[in-house]
TrEMBL record:
Keyword annotations of the record: DNA-binding
Lineage summary: Bacteria, Pseudomonadati, Pseudomonadota, Alphaproteobacteria, Sphingomonadales
Organism the protein comes from: Croceibacterium selenioxidans
Protein name as catalogued: Rrf2 family transcriptional regulator
InterPro entries named among the record's database cross-references: TR_Rrf2-type_CS, Tscrpt_reg_Rrf2, WH-like_DNA-bd_sf, WH_DNA-bd_sf
Amino acid sequence: MLSQKTRYAIRAMQHLADHYGQGPVQLSEIAAAQKIPANFLTVILSELSRYGIVDSQRGKDGGYWLAIAPIDITYGDLIRVMRGSLALVPCASRFAHEKCRNCLEEGDCRTRALMLQVRDRTAELLDSIRLSDRIDPVPALEGEEES
């Protein structure tokens, strides 16, 4: 599952994409609209700024904005920046590969083979959807809890 930090980062970036080209967006506006604790949002936006995805300006008229056009940012990019990998297990990670403890040799492990396929298909999908793409909310099913 995605961490809460990653989910907040995605929502913040969607908010900034919705306001792309309109100037700085105040942190308090993003926090209120996306229901993200302001202190946590500050940390997230600082991290995204270090990666060159977000820019900021201090002061009364300051705020945050996308440093890169939304069409040039994929959801795969965002998740990799925040999470480090799209893989569900360390041995299937392309950039943060680690051997699993208490496991078979990688060449003999069918679970790893499956997780490599999952990683590749997940990457294919997330790398094909851009921050500029329209994504409509899907109504919750009856009996389904909202989070």
